[in-house]
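Figure 3 (text version): structure tokens given as input.
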């Protein structure tokens, strides 16, 4: 029996190495928002009224809520597992050893600083718990404990994987949940993308040589948007039931971001700057859920809203009366805003293999 277990363990390890095509990293450093936060928002105790610190969040893998916005692991968790690294600790967790990785991402994070939103008259629509520039400052504060001197850091960080985002989603949320139409919000995309590009350059200046830059998701397919902005006009929806205007906003951002990444690749030939296509992969899951093992694509697994999308703001996942579906792995959407662990695993696989990341992380 013991021998059999050893064989199984060997095969599992072997297949893991095959999956990453021999690529090896000494650490992973992640930045972003609720798609990536592994606990930064909760290191000083869960903020009052934050439902994601309640069951059934975390039920699939951790068996408890971990401040992750999912039923289990996130893309960065799966990347860490693929490369034989520990799950990323929140950078704000004092006294931790971050030599093998740290997560600067925090729920509610935006690309832009608070002044940007003040200038648009929507400062009240953001949490701004650590925008992009602030997260890079957090990382700089950790660097001496991670790699020592500036020169030593350049060497160490050149062998690490950096995941910058996604960023942008909350910038657009602030605008669209404010008084901006998707078309008006799109007018700010160039500014937001320039800020993301600046973030990439700051990391490269510190020594980063492998940087993943994810685009934003097709939010027009997400239950929260489908519920809040539903209309009686069939022409507002595409053939899969997604809101066209909101997906057009995401697509415009991604078009500009891909151009920015291409430009940066030319400027920094010594770095591997990878565009991760969140949008195309998730949209493909919406288009053909069955091929990904999903039986539902536009309906939240966890909530108490009922209706077509099982979402309502007053009965979100984690609130009294809300519950999770029996099999989260058969759902694309976890809580109407974020995805299930099953979806995040498929996304991580697509980034490593190159199906939805250019070039592939594992290349």
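Below: residues designed for each position.
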């Amino acid at each position: 029996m013991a021998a059999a277990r050893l064989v199984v363990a060997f095969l599992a390890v072997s297949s893991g190495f095959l999956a990453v095509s021999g690529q090896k990293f000494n650490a992973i450093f992640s930045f972003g928002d609720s798609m990536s936060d592994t606990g930064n928002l909760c290191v000083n105790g869960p903020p009052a009224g934050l439902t994601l610190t309640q069951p059934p969040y975390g039920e699939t893998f951790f068996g408890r809520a971990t401040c992750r916005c999912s039923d289990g692991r996130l893309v960065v968790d799966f990347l860490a597992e693929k490369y034989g690294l520990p799950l990323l600790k929140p950078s704000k967790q004092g006294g931790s050893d971050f030599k093998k990785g740290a997560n600067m991402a925090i729920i509610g994070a935006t690309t832009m600083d608070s002044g940007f939103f003040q200038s648009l008259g929507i400062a009240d629509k953001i949490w701004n718990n650590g925008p992009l520039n602030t997260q890079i400052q957090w990382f700089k504060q950790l660097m001496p404990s991670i790699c020592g001197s500036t020169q030593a850091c350049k060497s160490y960080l050149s062998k690490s994987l950096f995941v910058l985002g996604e960023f942008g989603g909350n910038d657009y949320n602030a605008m669209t949940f404010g008084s901006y139409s998707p078309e008006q919000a799109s007018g700010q995309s160039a500014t937001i993308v320039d800020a993301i590009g600046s973030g990439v350059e700051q990391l490269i200046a510190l020594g980063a040589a492998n940087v993943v830059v994810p685009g934003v998701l097709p939010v027009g397919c997400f239950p929260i948007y489908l519920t809040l902005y539903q209309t009686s006009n069939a022409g507002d929806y595409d053939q899969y039931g997604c809101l066209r205007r909101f997906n057009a906003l995401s697509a415009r951002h991604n078009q500009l971001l891909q151009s920015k990444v291409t430009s940066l690749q030319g400027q920094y030939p010594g770095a591997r700057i990878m565009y991760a296509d969140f949008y195309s992969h998730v949209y493909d899951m919406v288009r053909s859920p069955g091929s990904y093992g999903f039986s539902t694509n536009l309906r939240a697994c966890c909530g108490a809203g009922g209706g077509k999308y099982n979402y309502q703001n007053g009965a979100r996942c984690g609130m009294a009366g809300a519950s999770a579906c029996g099999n989260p792995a058969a759902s694309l959407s976890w809580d109407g805003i974020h995805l299930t662990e099953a979806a995040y695993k498929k996304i991580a696989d697509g980034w490593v293999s190159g199906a939805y990341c250019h070039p592939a992380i594992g290349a």
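The beta strands are 28-31, 101-103, 161-164, 210-214, 272-276, 357-358.
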